[in-house]
């Protein structure tokens, strides 16, 4: 999951990284008000997930609150890489003497994090890599030992950073590494990391990619908007859920079975609305939650539940299905296939409640697609 700039900056603040004061605004009037509060000059910044906002006209300097309002109006009219701009971050402008690039990401081939620094920041790092690869400096980080201060010093020294900046920059690097580990990120990036004429350092932008399967406990405010609300709910119950764009809700146990079910539904002319794996040995509560989740998606016109009971018990699954139906008064058609451990007990439970299990996956896929069309 990729955070927006302002969300990433909130995480930066938690580890003590220097972030210029700023506030969100959703209209030109708000932008003007915020600019008055912060004191001009300010920078008006589109909050969209895309990078390269500067080039797309989504980052503008304003010398007065009135001008901040005007720039806000311009930027709120933009669509950047397909994403309409709805929100702005207004920050106190920083005077820039130099711009550095600083990032930490996972180097999968080396199986460890890598620290990346370039004295040519402010522009796209991919572009720097193309035009002047020699200005990009990297150092691997031992996952066991962490980042040693001497590694940072020698990296900065090799990059030609003025000696007087090595200490304050090392402090920023250490804090960024803390953010990387504490929030279990895949990538953290400050570009640009600005140096002011008086030698202060400021993180003017943030890029943060978190691990969807290992999100930090305390997420920054506003992050719900980035994560699909259903995906967020699924995580709480240890359900693997991915929203798709069709109308057939799908629940199964085991990623392979769920994928095969998606294919089968597609094959008989249906379009899956989601992938949902309840995993092995699921409880009745998980099954109930899974069904509640899927039917709460307004796109879902019917649900196919395909369970192969091994460690997962069919009677337990049936109990969850029935509990969800009772609680929610599920109005869309439901097709269930239950085979394996305690299959008979599961079927009996379902039948007693008026849900007739189908005998095979193929039959189930066809049935749900027919029911939706009817
Ligand atoms: P990006 O284009 O999406 O990476 O957005 P950034 O937040 O990195 O902003 C783009 C550029 O705007 C930066 O590289 C800076 O050159 C410039 N910029 C951002 N904040 C400030 C600021 O406070 N003062 C000045 N002078 N320029 C800024
Ligand atoms: Mn940037």
Describe the protein's topology.
Layout: H1 5-14, E1 22-25, H2 28-38, E2 42-46, E3 59-62, H3 65-76, E4 79-80, E5 83-84, E6 88-92, E7 98-107, E8 112-118, H4 125-131, E9 137-140, H5 149-158, H6 163-182, E10 185-195, E11 201-203, E12 207-210, H7 229-236, E13 240-243, E14 248-252, H8 255-267, E15 274-277, H9 284-295, E16 302-309, H10 314-328, E17 334-340, H11 343-352, E18 357-358, H12 361-373
Parallel strand pairs: 14-16, 16-17, 17-18
Antiparallel strand pairs: 1-6, 2-3, 2-6, 4-5, 7-8, 7-10, 8-9, 10-11, 10-12, 13-15
The chain binds guanosine-5'-diphosphate and manganese (II) ion.
User: Which fold does the CATH topology of the largest domain refer to?
Assistant: Rossmann fold
Which structural category fits the helices and strands? alpha+beta
- Please give the radius of gyration in angstroms: 26 Å
Tell me the distance between the termini: 38 Å
Q: Assign the CATH class of the largest domain.
A: Alpha Beta
Q: What would the average pLDDT be, to the nearest integer? A: 92
Specify the oligomeric state.
Answer: single chain
The CATH H-level superfamily of the largest domain is Succinyl-CoA synthetase domains
Unreliable runs = none
- DSSP strand tally: 18
Shape: elongated
Helix content: 25-40%
User: How many domain modules?
Assistant: 3
**How much of the sequence is in beta strands?**
15-25%
Q: How many strands, which pairing sense, and closed or not: the largest β-sheet?
A: 6 strands, antiparallel
The CATH architecture of the largest domain would be: 3-Layer(aba) Sandwich
Order of helices and strands: HEHEEHEEEEEHEHHEEEHEEHEHEHEHEH
Instruction: Work out the helix count.
Output: 12
């Amino acid at each position: 999951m990729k955070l927006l700039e302002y969300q990433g900056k909130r995480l930066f603040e938690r580890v003590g990284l220097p972030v210029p004061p700023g506030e969100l605004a959703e209209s030109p009037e708000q932008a003007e008000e915020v600019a008055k509060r912060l004191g001009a000059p300010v920078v008006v910044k589109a909050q969209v997930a895309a990078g390269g906002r500067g080039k797309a006209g989504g980052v503008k300097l304003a010398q007065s609150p009135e001008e901040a309002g005007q720039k806000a109006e311009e930027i709120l009219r933009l669509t950047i890489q397909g994403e309409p701009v709805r929100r702005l971050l207004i920050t106190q402008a920083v005077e820039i003497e130099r711009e550095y690039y600083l990032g930490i990401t996972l180097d999968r081939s080396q199986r460890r994090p890598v620290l990346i620094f370039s004295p040519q920041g402010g522009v796209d790092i991919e572009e720097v890599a193309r035009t002047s690869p020699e200005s990009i400096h990297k150092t691997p980080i031992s996952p066991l030992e962490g980042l040693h201060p001497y590694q940072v010093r020698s990296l900065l020294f090799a990059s030609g950073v003025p000696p007087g900046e090595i200490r304050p920059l090392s402090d920023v690097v250490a804090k960024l590494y803390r953010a990387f580990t504490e929030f279990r990120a895949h990538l953290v990036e400050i570009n640009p990391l600005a140096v002011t004429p008086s030698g202060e350092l400021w993180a003017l932008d943030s890029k943060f990619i978190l691990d969807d399967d290992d999100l930090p406990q305390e997420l920054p405010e506003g992050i719900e908007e980035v994560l699909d609300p259903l995906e967020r709910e699924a995580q709480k119950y240890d359900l693997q859920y991915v929203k798709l764009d069709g109308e057939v809700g799908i629940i199964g146990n085991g990623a392979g079975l769920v994928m095969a079910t998606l294919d089968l539904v597609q094959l008989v002319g249906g379009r899956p609305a989601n992938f949902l794996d309840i995993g092995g040995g699921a409880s009745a509560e998980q099954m109930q939650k899974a069904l509640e989740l899927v039917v709460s998606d307004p796109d879902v016109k019917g649900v196919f539940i395909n369970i192969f009971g091994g460690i997962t018990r069919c009677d337990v699954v049936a109990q969850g299905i029935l509990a969800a139906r009772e609680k929610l008064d599920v109005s869309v058609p439901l097709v269930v296939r239950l085979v394996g451990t305690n299959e008979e007990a599961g079927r009996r439970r379902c039948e007693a409640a008026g849900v007739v299990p189908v005998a095979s996956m193929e039959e189930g896929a066809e049935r749900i697609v027919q029911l939706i069309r009817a």
